[in-house]
Amino acid sequence: MSNLDSKPIPTRCGGRGDVPGEPVHELLTGRLVPLGDSTVVRRLLPNLGRRMVGAWCFVDHYGPDDIADEPGMQVAPHPHMGLQTVSWLHAGEVLHRDSLGSLQTVRPFELGLMTSGRAISHSEESPREHAPTLHGAQLWVALPDGDRHTAPAFEHHAELPVVNAPGLTATVILGELDGAVSPGTAYTPIVGADLALAAGTDVRLPLEPDFEYAVLAMSGATEVDGVPVEHGSMLYLGSGRDELPLRAETGSGLMLLGGEPFAEELVMWWNFIGRSHQDIEEARKDWSEGSRFGEVHGYDGGRLPAPELPPVPLKPRGRVR
User: Fold this and answer.
1) Is residue 296 part of a domain?
2) Under 8 Å CB-to-CB from 230, ≥6 apart: which residues?
3) Contact of 269 with 2, CB cutoff 8 Å
4) Looking at the DSSP assignment, which residues form a beta bridge with residue 249?
5) Is 90 among the annotated ligand-binding positions?
6) Spatial CB neighbours of 183, under 8 Å, sequence gap ≥ 6
7) Most exposed: 218, 273, 293, 321, by fewest CB within 10 Å?
8) Could you give the cofactor binding note from the entry (predicted)?
9) Mean pLDDT per 10-residue interval, the chain, length 321 residues
10) Full residue range of the structural domain in which residue 219 is found
11) What is the pLDDT of residue 22?
12) DSSP, residue by residue, 269-286
């Protein structure tokens, strides 16, 4: 997945200083951002007032979109550095290609996990013959300093562990939830889970008090700790919770995102995460010159050019504006 803004805003995030040490309610609404030629996403992170949730640093939600007579998602080859990408679908398919030679169709409720490490490039597209509906989320996870130069890798996991409670099915996408551990490689204490709630559900989900959390509403309307959260919005919950009340009058779908607050301060610009302006400048130069990030073979079209850097140096800072 890519940040396709032609003039991306430098995002400075990380650090524990602004993480609430107690439960809070911050309802975040997404801004509409075009992704390729025919897909519009709701960008929930980074947000005006909230930059990260644990190591989760970028969240796009899209659909459900009718693409029966459309090309669907078409994102040309682009680079990544210092992060992991998570592809998660409720409907449709995404064909992933990368500079390692990976070629994988990711389908609903399967995990597509790409670790960029020091450098990788990839493309994402709806297959030529595709389902009529596209609905999902694209997310990034920041890599800690000790792992951000690791070798790039791609994982596809069609089978994921599930936690069940009355009216609730929780699929563990990344990290751990209630003792169930995802097979996806994680570099920080983290959790990502898909929550399917049946009509009439009134349940409490166990949480880790040391984690901070947010809940993204994928479909339907749900009360999260008594707060109505509607389709396409996200409720930031802070930390200090050992359980989370969930109530749904109709069937609904959520994503639970959480993790240990990310201690390091980061610089995020375009599709790169670094620790300094120099990190970002070098990555942009390498992509523009065709080095370091490899080549994606098989995509029908050219690759994305890097935007111009802003005129002032990028500096890391805390987690909220």
Assistant:
1) no
2) 217, 221
3) no
4) none
5) no
6) 111, 155, 157, 159, 160
7) 321
8) Binds 1 Fe cation per subunit.
9) 54 59 91 77 90 96 94 94 98 98 98 98 96 97 97 98 97 98 98 98 97 97 96 96 97 98 94 96 97 96 94 68 42
10) 23-259
11) 83
12) ETTEEESSHHHHHHHHHH
Say which residue the tokens 């890097």 belong to. Answer: 306
Nearest to 235 by CA among 13, 34, 26, 62: 26
Please report whether residue 279 resides in a domain. no
Which CATH number is 121's domain given? Answer: 2.60.120.10
Q: Tokens for 187? A: 């570099």
SS3 content of the chain, % helix, strand, coil (to 5): 5, 50, 45
> Is 130 annotated in some ligand binding site?
no
pLDDT value of residue 321: 42
Tell me which residue has tokens 């995002």.
11
Q: How far apart are CA 119 and CA 67, in angstroms?
A: 32
- Residue 124, annotated as binding a ligand: yes
Q: Are 150 and 142 in contact (CB under 8 A)?
A: no
176 is in an annotated binding site: no
Look at the alpha carbons of 274, 277, 278, 283 in this order and tell me if their dihedral is positive or negative: positive
Which pLDDT score is estimated for 17? Answer: 55
- Does this model's pTM top 0.85? My answer is yes
> Token pair of 154, please?
């791609």
Any domain includes 283: no
Closest CA to 89 of 70, 71, 105: 105
Residue 85 inside a domain? The answer is yes
Distance CA 27, CA 18 (A): 17
Q: How many CA atoms lie within 13 A of 235 on its CB side?
A: 22
